[in-house]
Every structure is written in C-alpha cells, then in structure tokens.
Specification:
Blueprint lengths: L7 H4 L4 H13 L3 E7 L9 E10 L7 E8 L1 H47 L3 H25 L8 E3 L1 H12 L7 E6 L7 E3 L1 H19 L3 E15 L2 E13 L27 H10 L4 E7 L2 E9 L4 E2 L3
Parallel strand pairs: 5-7
Antiparallel strand pairs: 1-2, 2-3, 4-6, 7-8, 8-10, 8-11, 9-10
Helix pairs in contact: 3-4, 5-6, 6-7
C-alpha cells in the first residue's frame, strides 16, 4: 500500500539513472534490459542491484505506456561474489603451500651454507658477501612467514571485539598522520566472542594498515560493528554473525585488481607486498568467517563476518 498512487521515481529515491532510462525508452520506443544499481533510500538503507526491464506498451486509442519490471537480485549477486571469494581463497591457500615448499625450505639450506662459508673466510670484505646472503635469506623467510600468518588452529578465548579493535588502533597510531581522522561506530550489544586473539589482531591489523596506506596521509577511517541475523557464509547459515567493517574514504581499489586482491602478491602500491589481504582472509577463515569488500573512489569497505552462535545447515 505504500507504493499506491505514488510516482515510481519517488519510491526509488529519484534515481537519476532510472530517470534517464525511462526518458530514453519513451523517446526511442526501444526496450531496455540490464542490471541497475539503486542507491539507498529511507526504506532500503543499503545499495540494491536489480534486474531492470523497460518496454513500451501500445494501447489503441490511448497514450503509450511504459511497462517497468524490476527484480531484486542483490542477494543472488552477493552469493555469486561469496562463491568467487571462496574459490579465490582456496587458490590462494594452494599458492601459499607452493610458496612455502619452493622458497622457505631451500632458504634454510642456503643460509646454513653461507654461515659455514663465512667461518672459512679470513677477509672481512668477503664476509660482507656472505652477510648479504644470510640477511636476504632471512628476509625472504620472513616474507613467507608473513604470507602464512600465525600457524596452527585457533586458540580461542573470550574476547571483546571492540577492545581488540582499540588495541589494533594503538598499534597503528605511530603511522597515523595528524590529517587522518578515526571514527568509531560500535554496537555496544555485541557479546564477547570465542576468538584467537593473536590471529584476530593480525587480521585486523592488516586491514587497518591497508586503509591507512590508501589514505596517503589525508582522510577518514571508520570502524563499525553490527550484529547481523540469519546470515549465510559459504553454504552455512548462522543465526547471528558479527559484522566488523573497516572503511576509508581513499581513492578505492583499482577496478582491474578488484577480482584478485585476495590472491598472494597482488598489490597496487609499489612498496606493498600483496600479502596482507590473503593472510587476513586465511586467519578469518580459521574462525569460520569471511572477508568481503566494496570499493569505489571515496569509499572502500572491508567487511569481516564471523559467526557468533551455533550453526544450522543451509536448507535448499
């Protein structure tokens, strides 16, 4: 009844793209069929993706009319995106295992050989070369360790997620420019969660450091927490999920990288390693969760979803 006798454009927040589509179909009589993003309205707080079809109806003795069909495909699109992220994460895990085997194991032998050689050398000048070999071996081993992240299954203890986020912010505080503002939007009703504190600190630290780097010294970071009811992660539906968001108003992730940011070694920054996001995704997955993101110029949001309660299998 809310829609009765009200203009369509008013119901969808006077969407400019929809207005252009209607005018174009009306002028050319050519049907339109495509996916369309609708901005948030007073009724729908989030952006929606709809399958939109507009066609002309000829009516004898009457003015032509427009038939507008819209199907909300937001959830279908999100499920497809989640499946793509799961596939990407699985491929990333395989790459991690290959990297660990192909790089880390030979590095131990290389380092040991360089140490033995160093003991046989009398010249300090020649020892400088073995020191370079040893230091570079250590650097590459550290790079692989960063990619692998903290090992082993989670050692879960009751954790207040907001206290954990504040601890992460204290760690990055030395990196913050005076022109970077931090905004908190926490849900005080979120209960303590059974989490591995060290693993979660590392995951959130990677995400926050990425946000800081994206701002290049100017902008705002928002930390947001909410409880989400009946949320599906992969093929499992959870009664309650904690949703933690790290948002920045930087330039956004380049479009050509958005489908591969969770692969190891993918980065848009010359000084970046491309290890932070895949490591964070791996650590969150150990808690049954998943990281998703949305990015456009002026708004990038990484959403960390972690189950809060007992699960029930997804039906259908």
């Amino acid at each position: 009844m809310r829609a009765k006798h009200r203009p369509l454009l008013q119901l969808i927040g006077d969407d400019e793209e929809m207005q252009d589509i209607l005018m174009r179909v009306q002028e050319t009589s050519a049907a339109y069929a495509n996916e369309l993003r609708l901005a948030p309205t007073e009724v729908h707080s989030e952006e929606r993706l709809v399958d939109c079809r507009v066609s002309v109806i000829r009516r004898a003795g009457h003015e032509d009319a427009l038939l507008i069909e819209m199907t909300d495909v937001t959830r279908r699109s999100k499920i497809s995106r989640e499946n793509a992220l799961l596939i990407q994460h699985g491929a990333g895990r395989q790459m991690i295992r290959q990297l660990a085997h192909e790089i880390k194991n030979p590095l131990g032998g290389l380092r040991g050989a360089a140490q033995l050689l160093e003991r046989q050398l009398d010249s300090n000048e020649l020892k400088e070369y073995t020191n370079v070999i040893i230091s570079e071996a250590d650097r590459l081993a550290g790079l692989v360790d960063t990619l692998l992240g903290p090992g082993g299954p989670p050692n879960k203890q009751p954790v207040n997620i907001h206290e954990l986020l504040e601890y992460v912010m204290r760690l990055v505080e030395p990196e913050l420019s005076e022109h970077i503002r931090i905004r908190r939007d926490y849900d005080p009703g979120l209960p303590n969660m059974e989490l591995d504190r060290d693993q979660m600190v590392q995951a959130f630290l990677n995400l926050v450091q990425n946000a800081v780097a994206a701002l290049d010294g100017h902008g705002r970071i928002t930390l947001r927490s909410r409880a989400v009811m009946n949320f599906t992660i992969g093929d499992v539906r959870y009664p309650v999920v904690a949703n933690v968001e790290i948002e920045d108003d930087g330039p956004g992730i380049p479009p050509d990288l958005q489908d591969s940011v969770f692969y190891p070694l993918v980065t848009s920054r010359p000084e970046g390693t491309g290890l932070g996001l895949p490591a964070a995704q791996e650590l969150i997955s150990r808690h049954g969760g998943m990281i998703e993101f949305e990015s456009r110029p002026g708004k990038t949001v990484f959403q960390v979803r972690i189950p809060l309660m007992t699960v029930e299998a997804e039906s259908g």
